[in-house]
């Protein structure tokens, strides 16, 4: 079976973990600090705060910016549930703006239409590893004095107009095993704002800077040194992983070109796509997925239900009509693109997909 995702962990990661375990210091400690410094440099940000998941990074970023009850945050309905849930956790209301049909990212024009007097922030998602339109989004944010929190959980190293994502506003990254790099579970907040960095570090540790002095309500959302040690090794490998993802993606795009029924993944000018997923639009999507599975090729649907149509959100009273997202949910299919694929694997994915449409 060719899996849809596979973390690449080797001897270096094992040695790094062993070293931490042998040291006896296994909670948040010097490795976390070292990882924060390395990740902030990589992203081109002055500060970074490590936490125990991408969800925690989003949640803390919102709280650090003072977002809560009565506030509205505009985000994409076509993303993993954690994006919108992080807004709900703060007491604020997620407001969904529909997406662009080509990148599947939030559409800046639709953001404009959703701004009210309650809007405090925009949370774009760099879906599949392709940057949202950060030029337009930063302009809107500036015009309306809005905070920008980037959900960069799928986009480690991706660029927009020469800048890394996570460095435009406040960034939130995930290091879940299926992401472009992993720490097992883990996350990171990136920022150029010293106060946001300090607040984030307090919120992750029960609102305290000095032990047993609690200045605000916080949580326990810390990263361990065990996770950070894995992250330090993975970060060194990230550019290599990304180059392989990009090479696999261009092989897929070349191989899928011209199939009627398939729209291959695109990269917009000015963007560096890091291909967390290689996602096509496919006619007869579910039949294609079944055929690929019969041929031992794993696929994924990211995502089958837009967030405003999720049962829990319907219960909250969401009645939006967001046709671009709803159509995408019926047509998207992610094909394996991860760096553990061999050349033969990629050729097989192309061959089997071609075979399906030749007989469809
Ligand atoms: C993975 C992911 C998250 C959540 O990250 P976790 O580390 O799983 O909590 C949030 N947003 C998006 C877009 C993601 O892909």
From TrEMBL:
Entry EC no(s): 2.6.1.-
Example GO BP: polysaccharide biosynthetic process
Cofactor(s) this protein cannot do without: pyridoxal 5'-phosphate
GO MF annotation, one: transaminase activity
Superkingdom, natural source: Archaea
InterPro entries: DegT/StrS_aminotransferase (IPR000653), PyrdxlP-dep_Trfase (IPR015424), PyrdxlP-dep_Trfase_major (IPR015421), PyrdxlP-dep_Trfase_small (IPR015422)
Gene3D superfamilies: Aspartate Aminotransferase, domain 1, Type I PLP-dependent aspartate aminotransferase-like (Major domain)
Family annotation (SUPFAM superfamilies): PLP-dependent transferases (SSF53383)
Keywords: Aminotransferase, Pyridoxal phosphate, Transferase
Pfam families documented for this protein: DegT_DnrJ_EryC1
Family listed: Belongs to the DegT/DnrJ/EryC1 family.
PANTHER family: DTDP-4-AMINO-4,6-DIDEOXYGALACTOSE TRANSAMINASE, TRANSAMINASE
Name of the protein this chain belongs to: UDP-4-amino-4-deoxy-L-arabinose--oxoglutarate aminotransferase
Organism: Methanosarcina lacustris Z-7289
